[in-house]
Specification:
single chain, 436 residues, alpha+beta, Heat Shock Protein 90, 3 domains, five-stranded mixed sheet, four-stranded antiparallel sheet, 51% helix, rod-shaped
Length: 436
Amino acid sequence: MLALASLLLATLVSVAVVGWLPRPAAPQMRLGQAVQVLRGEITADSAGLRLQLQSGPPAGDNSPWLLALAAQQLGVPASRVRLAWSGPARVPDVQVIEGQTLLNAAQRSRVLQAQGQLLGAMQLPPFELAMQQDDGRWQVVSSDHSDLAAWRRQVLLALLAGTVLLAPLAAWAAIRLGRPLRRLADASAEGDLRSMTPLPEEGPREVQMLAVAINASRTRLRDQAQEMTRMLAAVAHDLRTPLTGLRLRAEFAPPEPARRMVADIERMNAMIQQVLDYARGELEPPALQPLDLAEVLDDCVQSARLRGVAIHAELPTTLPWEVDALLLRRALDNLIDNAARYAGPVELQARVSGEELMLEVADRGPGIPQADRARLLQPFQRAETSRSRTTGGAGLGLAVAAIAARHHGGELLLLDREGGGLLARMSLRRHRGHER
């Protein structure tokens, strides 16, 4: 409807300007200037006139009095001069009065010299003044006015008028359509499949239909992703039963094979635990509770030291924050173990920046290439692709940490550490319901 209304308005404006407005009138001419052009005293272009040579004289109505005046000023017989008005231009009615007596044609000759300059300066409708040359051809001076140029100016005026009238409507339409589209784009960029907040369904009908379609698509994809995660968690959980049976059978094997079997079983249990941790983080909402986070961080450090990790921590004595302690401990354990596996000594630091808490796990290892960092935050992705038993697990450690950061309103960033190494920075945003 908006496009149709705009087109209709533009058409009406063009019809009004082109069809209803009067035809642009040609500019008037001065007889004296035309005579000067034929004499060669001035150029036709400088006077806005056109000079051409043709075989015959121009046709049209004539004014004998003005013709005689032109012949006198040109200094040639009247038989060699033509003065003609053609087309819509009307022959001017020029009368010469002396005292109160209207002079006839015979009496006008004696006043030509006295009034010739005055009459030559009069503004007259466009005419053609011609003088016959010695070779029989005619030099013709006429107006340089072009009907095509006048038509083009009128069309241009129509387009400009239509643009001026349509500009407010176009601006209003652009704002009305662009603002909800921008809000929809911003909401789509900030959300993901885990977000339960639907996109705003507002604005024109087409934008509302787009928002509805995107919301429905996100819901279907989220349901499918959750169903696959539930299936993965169920398979991982069911694997524990046969692994327990294998562990019992390993007790009756010879010592050396039993040791290798138990090591493989423990490694498989650790991988299953990572899968379950990832599934819980994806499926279960965070259980945020206000507590002293400094104690949770200290427990993570002590547990890491019991696992043989060389870790140095810089932690505040008290740190009230609202977190899911279990989810946060899984994330920190994964970050600390990854750093220890690839780099050795680990440093843990906690600092508050405005409404955000920064938990940083740093090492002096080889780091991670910039091109691989976004990929490694996805599940089942590893920097070392050989799947060796000695270099890592299932590739879920960083994914679990990223989910934990996201559930706390923050994100996990993998950064280059000054002086070499990797810095894993997990940000936690202060929950609005918690009072400082």
